[in-house]
Amino acid sequence: MKVSAAIITHENAATLDRCLSTLDWCDEVVVLDQHSTDDTAAVCDRHGVRLEQTEWLGFGPTKQKAADLCRNRWVLSIDSDERVTPELRAAIMALPDEPQPAAFAVNRLSQFLGRWIRHCGWHPDWIVRLFDRERAGFDGKPVHEAIEARGTVARLDGLLLHDAYESMEQYIAKLDRYTTAAAEEAHAQGRRSGPAGAVLRAQAAFWRMWLLQGGIFDGRAGAVLCLSSSFYVLSKYAKLWRLEKAPDDPGRS
Fold first, then answer.
1. The pLDDT value given to residue 108
2. What are the domain boundaries of the chain?
3. pLDDT digits 0-9 by tens, 69-105
4. 11-58 pLDDT, tens digit each
5. Which of 25, 3, 29, 1 is nearest to 16 (CA)?
6. Residues 219, 221, 227, 233: is their CA dihedral positive or negative?
7. N vs C: which end of the chain shows fewer Cβ within 10 Å?
8. Does residue 67 contact residue 77 with C-beta atoms inside 8 Å?
9. In this structure, are residues 130 and 75 in contact, taking their beta carbons and an 8 Å threshold?
10. CA 24-167-86 angle, 5° bins
11. CATH code for the part of the protein at 3-165
12. In sequence order, what are the residues at sequence separation of 6 or more whose Cβ sits closer than 8 angstroms to the Cβ of residue 58?
């Protein structure tokens, strides 16, 4: 089975380099960039992969565009801060030329502030990443996108390693972008929020991750992650409230 890897990236040359070093077995690698000014082009050239450019369309549409640029029927969608382990590589390469499932899910293990997070609701984290373009594709969501399959979805052995956040600065920058996009999506769907609801949702998110999902076992990094995720929820619903209160004039109180 021939596999194309599809990656979207922006100003992420360092992690992209590590990602590409685990994809030398793919029949094709397509990197869809958003006009980065770092060493992205040099990294792609060094690994001999194809580099394309696009404007930002939101996560779902941009990832689908990357998949559409691939030549092979089977596409492995991977983020520039992720890495394929040898076990996952072997599982993919062992697949027959025409697998019966329309897509395959992989188990992602994510790192936060230098620690692999095995609780907090972050692991196990089964996500669909390998799919047949004729029977599956990304939805149009601008954030929290997913691959929709018209057929069965199977699971693969091995892990997909995710170098999620190496610093709080990186986390906060992503949090701001993601919560804005999530609030705008919720607003477009007619969902509503308020200050009290935002606070209650944030508190519930913390206790769910910390106690019910075992964040307490992930040490200090787990504690910071639970608190940060709680603030993510607070930010999302506070931004949604502001959109409802002043959709046309952000300066209104």
1. 98
2. 3-165, 168-245
3. 999 999 999 999 999 999 999 999 999 999 999 999 9
4. 999 999 999 999 999 999 999 999 999 999 999 999 999 999 999 999
5. 29
6. negative
7. C
8. yes
9. yes
10. 25
11. 3.90.550.10
12. 140, 141, 142, 143, 145, 181
Full DSSP string of 171-237: HHHHHHHHHHHHHHHHHHTT----HHHHHHHHHHHHHIIIIIT-GGGGHHHHHHHHHHHHHHHHHHH
132's tokens: 């047949």
Amino acid type, 165: Y
185 Rama class: left (phi>0) / alpha (psi -120 to 50) / beta: alpha
**Among 148, 10, 125, residue whose Cα is nearest residue 67:** 148
Pairing of strands 28-33, 74-77: unpaired
Q: From CA 64, how far away is CA 146, in angstroms rounded?
A: 10
| Phi, psi of 21, rounded to the nearest 5 degrees | -65, -15
